[in-house]
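sanity check this record:
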Amino acid sequence: MDTQHQPILDYYRESHIDYQMVWGSFRHLGLHYGYHDAAHQGHHAAVLNMNRQVADRLQVQPGQRLLDAGCGIGGTSIWMAANRGADVTGVNISPEQLVRAHKLVKDRHLQDRVRFVQRSYTDTGLPDEQFDGVYGMESVSYAIDKRDFIREAHRLLKPGGRLVITDGFRNDAAFPEHLRGDYERWLDGWAVDNLAGARQFQDDLADLGFRDIRFEDALHRVLPSSRRMHRAAKYTLWGGKLLERLRIRTPVQTGNIIAAKLQYPCLIGRAWIYGIVTAVK
């Protein structure tokens, strides 16, 4: 694997325990913020609801082929197969996450509908125009050049195929410079090189062949999760630093806590926007 991916691999390997203990990923299998609405106000329900929101925007029908770009431990791939009857290929660079993903799929007897490929979503090695939908859930932000991902997604989609991205985007309309330091420390703690500008990402989609581009500012849909994460980090940071000194936890794990604390003030301060982007090939 290219050494540029090593910080990402280290982050997800060492933060797995935090996702399980704090985020509850062992239950809902999600590594994302979730989507809060009147019917899904609890954390667990909101995480599963984001899967539903993505499926609805993809307009998934039974038997359609989907690509899960940066599939994590396979939670959304499994949900799409089990709840919408989709045929899903998950792509991920992390061998540790894929071991877990394969086991989760096997435990649910979904091997005929879910498979995984250890590749970058910017270079999947998969044939042209074989997918009805491509989606990335808080994964596309890890691409150094987001246009590389867009090109690959466009290549893989059938004509008329749909793309859905849920992720953080830099506020390139009015970035608050007083938050620059916290913003950069937050990204560094989560091993993210950069966020795409919200306007720039839409321009890039259009430039590379997508149409019917829509950008939803989902601030209030993710705010409860962002606040929850901030609160948990606030109360565990001191202990995390102590455990790092005792060599029980690692600097990467401490960085994860710091990032979890900083993402909230950066969100409410509008340094970044949580966006749900849809587009059609």
In short: Residues 219-245 form the longest helix (27 residues). Residues 3-280 form a domain with the Rossmann fold fold (CATH 3.40.50.150). The first strand starts at residue 65 and ends at 69. The chain is about 50% helix and 20% strand.
